[in-house]
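Board work, copied verbatim: GTP cyclohydrolase 1
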Amino acid sequence: MIKNEEFQDEIGDNHVSLSAKNPVRDDAFDISDDDKIEKIKKDVESILITLGMDLTDDSLKGTPNRVAKMFVKEIFGGLNPAKKPKASTFDNNYKYGEMLVEKNIIVYSTCEHHLLPIIGRAHVAYISNGTVIGLSKMNRIVEYYAKRPQVQERLTMQIVQELQIALGTEDVACVIDAKHLCVNSRGISDIESSTVTSEFGGKFKDAVTRREFLDYIKLETKF
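↓ predict structure ↓
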């Protein structure tokens, strides 16, 4: 682990990831969700007290518990492999051979550098080679990988890789356009900017196919 705090701050402020996988410890699930909530609750209490907040106030009494439950059960629930959605796939009996696009999938994630929200939309496409996937499963795959401390580049790649495995084809693409509150609400405080990332596999590496996909989602960004 790098000890240089200036270097670590630079990585975080510039939203650089040093790992293609989420950096999760091997013992991450050795304790129950309830135990995690109790531990996080105490940590949140300590943070609020250190900041000078009065936790005897009715408005704040339940905040440590609410935050702990939110971390474990909701916004970081995608860390738990037990919650991974089953990708229901079917034979392409109707022989649909064109591009299928699921666009405007809402993304709610959390920047792993500042633990602030990432909010945007994912656009996902694939070309069947004999297998199709339920439409809602595409949304659930996006949601699963988004609900963890993330960087957007990694999230985009994980969505594509998961669908490639489920569908048995390389012909999968994903574009995410999202706002990072660590940029919008702190630091440079630029409320207008958003970040676009993409991952193109198989036939989507071809310029014509990629352009067709981008035309479907009406994204003007050039790749």
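Residues 13 and 25 are 23 Å apart (CA to CA).
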